[in-house]
């Protein structure tokens, strides 16, 4: 049986058509025809992940308003987290009197106001007006324009935005979001134990979720095989690294389709190479690793205000966790630049001029 909560009220009236990727048993993708309420008859086309749903749950919506607005944001081509963190800041600024109708062209930015949110989506997509233009720039720019306390309310990571789930109680996921290149898809977030296929040489865990020890290593390992999965055109959702033969089957499928003879360790090196190339892209544009914990919207690092994890924050262990992550991935902990021997090991010597020399 299905428990119909307030968040998914009305979903039981919808027509859902599953549209999985070819022969994949995970059956992620789905279409919907909304079957009730003011959006009755509207259609939606969605995939797995559900950050796009949390985008609108986080803005105070429930039920089929969430599916309707998710389809709108997809149609407009706006990245969900980028919009959610900007709009959330605007709503909070409205609630606390820092933003008024003079700068919203009359929109009333109350949580869960569907008409206002749909209008904001349109304005953001077209950079219409003061607020639409700033929402398109991003939450960091909006906070700077609002000034005052808004600088403390904003969520961003280096001007990019973390995926719209509640990551704050989860050290590995938080580390992943912080060290991801702003605006790029974060990868990684390791589990408390190594994948069974790598336990012959990864002998650690189970890690304590309330302590920082071991999580940078776990994250870096997961980041490598997830990058490798993406490089070969695989799908994260279908990759079950926690099952015996989970990682090996990823490598087997690559070898079966290409005729190559790639090992799991070579795949991890390919993932490592991809990580370094992405950070070199940032290095060449002025990024340093210290930005990962210094250029972060304060709300993202605040202690959790209530509930089971009240008071918890990764900030207690920053920058140490960030530093450790860069050290074990062969980069300087402050600059984020790869050491020369890291480049040599990965066959990336052509980027030596961007390496860390000491
Ligand atoms: S797990 Fe990946 S490949 Fe399978 S249906 Fe989901 S998105 Fe498609």
Descriptive tags:
358 residues, mainly alpha, Aldehyde Ferredoxin Oxidoreductase Protein, subunit A, domain 2, Aldehyde Ferredoxin Oxidoreductase Protein, subunit A, domain 3, 3 domains, 15 helices, binds iron/sulfur cluster
Please give a structural write-up.
With 358 residues, the protein is mainly α. The protein has three domains: 11-76, no CATH class; 80-153, Aldehyde Ferredoxin Oxidoreductase Protein, subunit A, domain 2; 171-354, Aldehyde Ferredoxin Oxidoreductase Protein, subunit A, domain 3 (Orthogonal Bundle), CATH 1.10.599. It has 15 helices and three strands. The protein has helices spanning 51-57, 64-76, 80-95, 114-126, 129-137, 139-146, 150-153, 171-179, 215-231, 246-258, 264-283, 291-294, 298-301, 320-328, 340-346; strands spanning 15-18, 30-33, 43-46. A three-stranded antiparallel sheet has the order 1-2-3. The longest helix has 20 residues, at 264-283. The protein is globular. The chain starts with 14 loop residues before the first strand and ends in a 12-residue tail after the last helix. The mean pLDDT is 93. The protein binds iron/sulfur cluster. The site of iron/sulfur cluster (SF4) has 11 residues, from loops.
